[in-house]
Amino acid sequence: MAASDNPNSDLKNVTLYRVLSIIGVFVLWEIGGLVPISVAFPTFSSTMLALFEMTADGRMIRAFGETLQPLAIGVLISGGFGIAIGVGMGLNRLFQWMGEPIFVVLQASPVAALIPLITYAYGIGLTAKTVAVIILASPIIVLNTYKAVRNASPTLIQMSRSFQGTRLQEIVKVIIPNAAPVIFAGLRLGVAAGFIGVILAELLITPTGLGDIISYHRSIAEYAHMYAAVFSIIVFSAVMVGLLEKVETNYFRPEKKKGQ
Amino acid sequence: MMSSATAIRQPDEMRPLSNENIVEVRNITKYYGSDIHALDSINLGFPTGQMTTLLGPSGCGKTTLLKIVAGLLEASGGEVFVKGEPVTGPGPERAFVFQDFALLPWATVLRNVAFGLELTHKPKAEREEKARHYIAEVGLSGFEQKYPHELSGGMRQRVGLARALAVDADVLLMDEPFSAVDEQTRRKFQEDLLHLLAVEKKTVIFVTHSIEEAVYVSDQIVLLSPRPGRIHSIIRPEISRSKSPDDIRRDKNYLDTVEEIWSDLRKYLD
């Protein structure tokens, strides 16, 4: 946000600092691995080698294919229904009173402890993993959406009414765009929580996909491979969150593009 | 017109609806909850083509009265007539200018100004043409593609004014439109507003707590007394608008009227 005569040079600087910060973390990681902090802590370079090896022989791609299925289904369901339920709760007192306790309790509960229970109900297949994703992702999406809609600017709503806006126009043209930044913050947190859900499910229910790579390589002490899987999850999750931010600024809050 | 300082008349209880008043309120009473009595049987006429100011200390219900006229608040009792017809909600003949601007932060100046027309489903080309016209009228040409956060407070309020003008309502309702802008901008804005209204021929109902502003811009000033809000008096400052803004601010009539209102209002401050 720093004011500068030349916004372009300012932008270049921001990118430079971001790249420097990432490189800094990798250098510290390399040093930490060389010391070594622990025998179970590989260097950055060996982790990258393992990542390359597993990508080249297709293991990584197959693993992502398996992991992304329940994740994508779960996140789509949580996002779609979550936003709909949240908007409903924000606009209607009755929905709010009925929905709030469920999602607050769900958000507060230690979901990792519930995952073994899911297997009783849904077995060990795709359904169980999808449910795990939904349980983790939906409360935060619902609650963020509901709070954002509930706290929509009263002046903007009055403005819409004063120009004869209908209730539907008020919701579509004012309340939802007004709530969009908080809804998207909820979605980003929801996607991150969904990742936790799917990895937990793969570690706790049946070892498949990335969870399988992590637990298998841990069991045979190939820590570089294990870390490579963890690293790839983090990168993928960060990219997803970044994409969501792009969707938000492009379609809902164009003014943010200029404000950065 | 310059001789008599001010003509004060007490509000009569039941004046007949007349053609000269585009808006009339009758016996408007407003309670907030069960114990706060905001307005007590207000009877008032707003003459067509004139600028009426609602003036009074904070808590006198002037914004409440304006929002009831706008149809944004429901009165606890009484009626509002616009062009002789009773109204209960917002209508196309009234447009509101908000104290804190109420601009959509995610929309450009152009879309904000056209928003009233967008809500009434005017075709895009038509509403943008109209919006561009009023953006130019309020002196913001070249800012059509800017977002509100890129504008100063005074410019944002000009956007709010252009939006209200664009829907072509007969009555403009302005709720302390200059209270959130600095003093220099405020003076310039008052001058521009008077000039613009002379061209556009609107009826304006204006809420302010500034005595100087009220006397400077108004044809008719309604002084409200607080808790519950009642009409204290109605003043018509007889000031020639043909003079320059600086001469008006030095005019004896102007200064006397300001002084008179101040001595009237100060008793409510103890």
Task: Please describe the topology of this protein.
The complex is a heterodimer of chains A (260) and B (270).
Chain A: H1 7-34, H2 44-56, H3 59-91, H4 93-108, H5 111-122, H6 126-150, H7 154-162, H8 167-204, H9 209-219, H10 223-252, H11 255-259
Helix pairs in contact in A: 2-10, 3-4, 3-6, 3-8, 3-9, 4-6, 5-6, 6-8, 7-8, 8-9, 8-10, 9-10
Chain B: E1 6-9, E2 21-32, E3 36-47, E4 51-55, H1 62-70, E5 77-82, E6 85-87, E7 94-97, H2 109-119, H3 124-137, H4 153-166, E8 171-175, H5 183-200, E9 203-208, H6 211-217, E10 220-225, E11 230-237, H7 245-250, H8 252-265
Parallel strand pairs in B: 4-9, 4-10, 7-8, 8-9
Antiparallel strand pairs in B: 1-11, 2-3, 2-5, 5-6, 10-11
Helix pairs in contact in B: 2-3, 2-4, 3-4, 6-8
Task: Please tell me about this protein's structure.
- The complex is a heterodimer of chains A (260) and B (270).
- Chain A is mainly α.
- Chain A has helices spanning 7-34, 44-56, 59-91, 93-108, 111-122, 126-150, 154-162, 167-204, 209-219, 223-252, 255-259.
- The model of chain A has no long low-confidence stretch (mean pLDDT 87).
- Chain B contains eight helices and eleven strands.
- Chain B has helices spanning 62-70, 109-119, 124-137, 153-166, 183-200, 211-217, 245-250, 252-265; strands at 6-9, 21-32, 36-47, 51-55, 77-82, 85-87, 94-97, 171-175, 203-208, 220-225, 230-237.
- A seven-stranded mixed sheet of chain B has the order 1-11-10-4-9-8-7, sandwiched between helices. Chain B has a four-stranded antiparallel sheet with strand order 3-2-5-6, covered by helices on one side.
- In chain B, strand 10 and strand 11 (230-237) form a beta hairpin.
- The radius of gyration of chain B is 18 Å and the shape is globular.
- The two termini of chain B are 35 Å apart.
- Classes of the chains: A mainly alpha (260), B alpha/beta (270).
- Chains A and B meet through helix 7, helix 8 and helix 11 of A and strand 7 and helix 2 of B.
